[in-house]
Amino acid sequence: MSDRFLYRGAAEDLRANDAQWRAYESTGHCVLLAGPGSGKTKTLATKLARMLDEDVEAPRGLACITYNNECAREIEQRLDALGVSRSGRVFVGTVHSFSLTQIVLPYARSAGLGLPDDFEVATEQQQRQAFERAYNRVAPGPQTPASWRFRANRYRRTYVNRGRPEWRETDATLAALVETYEAELRALGTVDFDDMPLLALRALAENGWLRTALVAKYPILAVDEYQDLGTALHSMVLGLCFRAGMRLFAVGDVDQSIYGFIGAAPDLLRRLSERDDVETIRLGINYRCGSRIVTASEYALGEARGYRASDGAPEGTIYFHPKAGTSADRARFLVGELLPAIQGRHAGLRLGEVAVLYATASMGDEVADAAAAAGIATVRTDGNALYPRGSRLMRWLEQCAVWCCGGWRTGRPRMANLVEEGCRLFRDVVADEDGRVVFRRLLVENLWAHRDAAASLHDWLADMDAEIVRPMVERVRTLAEERETLVAFIARLHDGDPGAMALGDFSGIGIGADRLNLSTLHSAKGREFDVVVLFEMDEGKLPRNNPLQDELREARRLFYVGITRARKEVHLIYGMQSPSRFVADLEQRLAGSG
Ligand SMILES: Nc1ncnc2c1ncn2[C@@H]1O[C@H](COP(=O)(O)OP(=O)(O)OP(=O)(O)O)[C@@H](O)[C@H]1O
């Protein structure tokens, strides 16, 4: 089969599942409501490939908005596997990058956004200082600027239409604080992350020609993880799809909404799915989890959804581990007793197939310490990781490091893929064939000259930054934040012992096959493992003490997301005297179900 039609082969997997097939065959606005492991990403990617081939004529294309860069990568990789060629017809990225690269950067001036031509994305330090100045001017109250900043940003994301009375009436102080803060940013000639969708929305709302231009370029808009994307994206969808004529293909799961605390509003997905002009399809089979884990997950959620495991799925097991002592004692139990027992049960199980999930990064410190003491390698995806795992630039550099540490000999990763991903990262600079040739030469020369696993990581990164990243980022404003991550990491290495971490250590970080995964529950979303250990599932930790109703519901959904990451085994570890109400409830219900 030619590459162009690979998706038709992949579509055969969907045929036996009536709901997936209907989504694949849909012709109008379609919303796919899909529980964990139900194949929503698989269906979405196959449908994207089909729409691109059959419904949209080149040079028009389609845009797919995802929750974060990690999800964008996942979709890009699946599209690659389906043979979707990398022309400029497909946009895959976050709502922020869509707003910035497709609307604000190209049209800021003609859409009358009042930004200087050379506006920049503010660094974290500039944002913090701008907020402190705004805080001093508005003098909102006794708490710290940091706590006001969190609330102000949530307010900004929630009330996106400043023309409506709610903007000022709901909380006049927060409205004033936001406006003063934004004015401070503009005085520096900068915008911040949250500005991007808001500015894009304003540009679209005020300029009919811009909506027309966007619909001409992207007649189809796909949205993944809709429940987590918030009000700005929803308003954009309403304007572009239900007024300007883009066709919508949206995917999400209200039960997996875990970002309400920063302004996501799962109800928007529900409302979308209830519209008369939308075909709503629900997927009911969970292809990931064993049948007992599917049952447990519904108990954990506290709602019956009628999901079932696929035919022939193994049963799966839930284990409860109440343990006396401190959380450090429980971490040592996990590493010293539980892990060997798990590995004993599953011959050949790689550590990368096991994940330890917890509510906050500090709980991960306990496990990381215990693992380090026992000589077990870990890979962390939480706020205390060496750097944010979501950073595309860092992930690309990791892969470059793998190449320098022997990949050049084994062909894993292939240089062609490094060039491809680099071109994608720096796409505003490496725009045409000539640019690609120059970029390829630059990359090959640099990596070839740095093939030494024992080299100092600090020096290697500093060289990569000076030779490749900085010159590129100076011309790609969208990557300013990514480079900040890199610069901060280089500074951290320098403040420690610059020679202490070798390139070989860094190249191993990205390859988790033999490393135990440590992650917050939030960062585990969308991932899957054979065995999941939920660590510190105590009342007061999940949920936190005295939760508000909304917080309690969101904590429950977080618990649900954790359980549904597992294919074969779920382990719950908690203090003997303080099990979370979710754990106690689950144990009782499972006992009752026999
Ligand atoms: N029709 C199908 N037949 C067989 N396997 C399938 C089918 N649909 C999906 N799967 C498999 O089920 C697993 C989960 O699919 P996918 O990652 O697309 O789920 P998801 O709905 O995005 O999950 P989550 O919301 O939990 O992240 C994958 O391994 C996928 O290949």
Main β-sheet, in a few words?
6 strands, parallel
What proportion strand?
A: 5-15%
Instruction: Using the 3D structure, state the CATH architecture of the largest domain.
Output: 3-Layer(aba) Sandwich
Instruction: Give the CA-based shape.
Output: globular
What small molecules does this complex bind? adenosine-5'-triphosphate
Count of distinct structural domains = 4
Q: Total helix count?
A: 24
Distance between the termini: 49 Å
Whole-number average pLDDT?
91
Q: What Rg, in angstroms, do the CA atoms define?
A: 24 Å
Helix content: 40-55%
CATH class division of the largest domain: Alpha Beta
Quote the CATH topology of the largest domain.
Rossmann fold
- Biggest sheet strand order reads 3-2-6-7-1-8
What is the tally of beta strands? 16
- In the predicted model, the low-confidence regions spanning at least 5 consecutive residues are none
What's the CATH H-level homologous superfamily of the largest domain? P-loop containing nucleotide triphosphate hydrolases
Sheet/helix structural class: alpha/beta
